[in-house]
Amino acid sequence: MVIVIALTTQGQDSLKCPRYVCVEPAARPGSIEELWEKEMVRYMKIIVDKFGLPFDSTWQPRVSFVETQYYAAQYNQVSKSFTITKWYRPVLPRDSGSNFVANLVSHELGNALAEQRAYSKFCKMWPDTMVWKYGSERQRFAQKILSEGVAEYFGYLVTGGLKTDSLYRHLPNKERNCVWNPSLWMYNGGYWTVKPILDTFGIRGLDYIIRNTKFPGIDYNLRKWAKKYQEKAFKELSQ
């Protein structure tokens, strides 16, 4: 059975790169993987309805389950598919009794949508793998904050918003704080950083973040530079 995500691509820029495709095979009909993929299609439609940016109409979400303790779910930039820890396999997100699994899946869909936009609009992978390989530690921090923030934004579009008033305090303001619970400050601090940009400017805001993955400053006060990044984005996007 083929899962079709025939979401309109009207207004989407023509692809400048080779076709963006998932290389994983379709799930076996009736399998738990197929049920998860159908659930992901439902979340994709929610994201499209709320944000207005379609997923690539030729791409279909593919899911595989793996035994790992290093992550709960992951979007693979090479295969354009998703891997999820096998502990979540028996329970579909809608049946989990909480928003956690739904947010987890929607977060990874956000990673896919942002990369699809980067691929079609700017002919690049996003987050940029060259930054992971060759960028400075602070450049990697900035890209991680912004990319995880974007993914969190799309995750919360599906499961409901998160109050951001105090989340900026999760961002480190000195080097030694960067080693403390990085997942917390990268995800929550990233969400705090990008949410006002995406709320205000929508797709233009996402394009700005994709093009600008460096913070204005060069020290480890990521709290200050995230705020400066917001201010710079608003100034440039308002012109």
Keywords:
single chain; 239 residues; mainly alpha; 3-stranded mixed β-sheet; 5% strand; disordered N terminus
Give a summary of the structure in a few sentences.
The chain is 49% helix and 5% strand. With 239 residues, it is mainly alpha-helical.
Gyration radius, rounded: 18 Å
Identify low-pLDDT runs.
1-15
Percent helix range? 40-55%
- Number of DSSP strand runs: 3
**Which descriptor suits the 3D outline?**
globular
Write a structural description.
It is a single chain. Helices cover 49% and strands 5% of the residues. The protein is mostly helical and 239 residues long. It has a 3-stranded mixed beta sheet. Helix 4 (137-159) packs across helix 5. It is globular. It starts with 31 loop residues before the first helix and ends with a helix. Residues 1-15 have low confidence and may be disordered.
Task: Summarize the SSE layout with pairings.
Layout (H helix, E strand, L loop, with lengths): L31 H20 L11 E4 L6 E4 L4 E5 L14 H23 L6 H6 L2 H23 L22 H30 L10 H16 L2
Parallel strand pairs: 1-3
Antiparallel strand pairs: 2-3
Helix pairs in contact: 1-2, 1-4, 2-4, 2-5, 4-5, 5-6
